[in-house]
Amino acid sequence: MENNKAVVVFSGGQDSTTCLFWALEKYDQVEAVTFDYSQRHNEEIEVAKEIANDLNVKHHILDMSLLSQLAPNALTRDDIEVKDGEDGDLPSTFVPGRNLLFLSFASILAKQVGAKHVITGVCETDFSGYPDCRDIFIKSLNVTLNLSMDDQFVVHTPLMWLDKAQTWEMADNLNAFDYVRQLTLTCYNGVRGDGCGECPACKLRRNGLETYLQQKSEVNS
After folding, report:
1. Which of 18, 24, 41, 155 is deepest in the core (most CB within 10 A)?
2. pTM of the predicted model as reported, rounded to 2 decimal places
């Protein structure tokens, strides 16, 4: 496609920040969109603002507070415990319809700003079982978005088949390893950088980091 402008769905976390660096290397023009859905920590939005400003990326923040009313969960309610799913259930952090809505609104924004590429950090390898992170869902939605607006968007998922160690490797290859490690917010308890170390998101991030550093050490030894 000749169009070389992209919109990145951006939360200020490890995955979306890695995708932002990926997009900045690949596209001539990049804009970021962050969704305010009354998430557990407003710190997430502040981190996204700071990173977008630091990287000189035009940043849009869209009000999606209706999502927290429709789908109460551990990311939007302080009285719901953050925990992994048991006996085949989804984790308490799953927000039904989140990626469906985020990608739909990101594509509407892309239409308005003249971008044909929409980038999201969803991943089917380390995805906690979230159904809206699956490759089949993204491909299906991509077709639907194009039909709904009679356009030719491409939804890119650079992390789809990467585990967390490989995502750290990608950040390193983009010369963004320290930036992502120190300045992003992945933690469900709102702690920047390496996080609280106890919540599921921090454990996944730390395990991937330790695996990557070990692999890198072995290669260099």
Report:
1. 18
2. 0.88
